[in-house]
# Entry
Amino acid sequence: MTYQRKSMNAIKGFFEWIMGWVIFGVIVVTIGWGVSFFSDDEDNTTKPAKETTISEDEKLIEVRKSYWDNGNLKEETPYKKSYSLGYKKVKTELVPHGIAKTYYENGVLRVEDPYVDGERDGIVKFYDENGKLESTHEYKNSKKEGKHVYYYSDGTEMDVEYYHDDVQVQAPVL
# Structure
């Protein structure tokens, strides 16, 4: 009787494992057809935008926006869905992908922050309340990498720092 119960548990476990992969395959095929599934996000501070688009790499992009009390745009961040196989189910999450923008309360652009697959990647630009460039910071895989430049209000360079693998260095690393 014990042997029979163990083999039944093994068979049941095998079928659960197979069903997990089948579900994953169905979702992957569904994504290819451009159908979206929405994840359960607990963040109520942003409102999903009404528009969604399909990017060049066929990934669903959703732009989330939040607003200041005066009605001006506060933030807008593009997201794409990321799928991973967890134990007995497929996990879906939204990750930043594209250029996230933050605005001052007066509506002027404050920060342009590029993301690729949830990682900060590219040149982050910071602006003052008048829209003039204050600084630029280079990132690769969410780590400081390259040149960080600070500007005077007339647009000339005030200071330059160099980073490699999130650590400040004296000279640029080639």
About this structure: Residues 31-58 have pLDDT under 50 and may be disordered. The helical segments are 2-32.
